[in-house]
Amino acid sequence: MALHTRLCELLGIAYPILQGGMAWVATGELAAAVSEAGGLGIIGAGNAPADVLQAEIKKAKELTDKPFGVNLMLLSPFVEEVVELLCAEGVRVVTTGAGNPGKYIDRFKAKGIKVIPVVSAVALAKRLERVGVDAVIAEGMEAGGHIGELTTMVLVPQIVDAVQIPVIAAGGIADGRGVAAALALGAEGVQLGTRFICAQECTVHQNYKEAILKAKDRDTVVTGETTGHPVRILRNQLAREFSKRERSGATREELEVLGAGKLAAAARQGDVKNGSVMAGQAAALVNTVEPAQAIMHNLVQNTLTVIEELKEKFSEVK
Ligand code: TUI
Is 80 exceeded by the pLDDT of residue 317? Predict the structure, then answer.
């Protein structure tokens, strides 16, 4: 048995496993390591200006000849210049997050770039299929960072039913059991973010990795629901301060000031108390730091084992 789907052909990868393009976390080193291991590594553009992103793309190109992607964060003030850069650099795959990428799709398609938006609702998935995206990532609210309202368990099968293009499941997946479950829901691929933060090649601050290793089942919270931009982070001093201010009626602008720069503080300076430690609920399932190659190998082998065990378990004649 092999873990091979339409997505592998579409993207030129060995395994249908994507690494989430996390802002300030998913650098060229991590993306290259995941691509070298047979998945699709993705650099997170986040709020970075084009020249900063260009340096990450250069690093990834030096470290791997395999395809990798870039995540375009649609709330970034630098979206326009980043779109230009992605077209000029001949990046092979662009994923998008935190908005509707509709107006950029023709420009990417004209360059032969594969476009795979993250969606958190059925209507947007259908609309984007009509305008020609190659696949969609259906991300449930178990995920870290900016999230929608539905869980992976209910979102994925509804999007699978609504579109013909491949669906990639994200949110709450960190091991082979999760991958097998996503495949059972009809997904043809998976995207994991939090699991790959704890890859050895991830250059995020060591404190950030340790915070994820320590996290237990109820250690993430959703902040920013009053701002219209709900964000899942690890419980800490910032999370408490944020929810206190939200409860006392702080304005959107005040909350934006409180949140500004906090992801970089956690990810690069290691301030996991007052910084924004974005992580998914699957943080509780992440207990080891390993090379991307080992993470990928274990994911693939454990997924196949789970599928085999299920077949055996339910094949006895009753
Ligand atoms: O994009 C993410 N996760 C992110 S982006 C990010 S940076 C940030 N920091 C603070 C506030 C806001 C962003 C941190 N984490 N995941 C992909 C994702 N996209 N999840 C949900 C969505 C989404 C939401 C609404 C996609 C489309 C959408 O469409 C709205 C519309 O216009 O129809």
Answer: no
